[in-house]
# Entry
Amino acid sequence: MAGMEVIDHQTVGSGGASSISFTSIPDTYRHLYVVGSFRSDASSARFSGDSVTFNDDTGSNYSYSALFTTGNAPVATEETGRANLNYLFTANASGSVANAFAAGSMWVLDYAATDKFTGVIGGASAVNDNLDTSDYFEGLISGHWKSTAAVNKITIASGSGNYVQYSEATLYGLNSAS
# Structure
């Protein structure tokens, strides 16, 4: 029977945090899904460029293709040999409208497989205010972690400043239909 279960949930407390990590991820699911809501205390920005790493690997083992916009025109980019994955998550920063938290999500496909690279797909959305259609971030990404190790840790790190209180992320495990 197919099903999705919460594996872990992290909420940033009053002291803030530079990252959110899910550790000791069991290998009992087929895929992982992460969803989060983030705000940063970065003072000189409206949005932060957050990053994702697996198993503390910061080598040149990540590649992705992304389509995103910040309100002016769509931008497409492809990068290989990176130390992390970008554009899956972002955070509204202190230069954006008060109390706005960005939303993001990521599928981690076949995360426990040790015979192929780990694939990801997801995206993020952040708005600056209710009416300004030229000041927002929308992104879609697909990519790979070029490792055959099973994913047992996921870290989402703020690209600028620290995550503020009430930023949060939830990790789900998904099983296939039997």
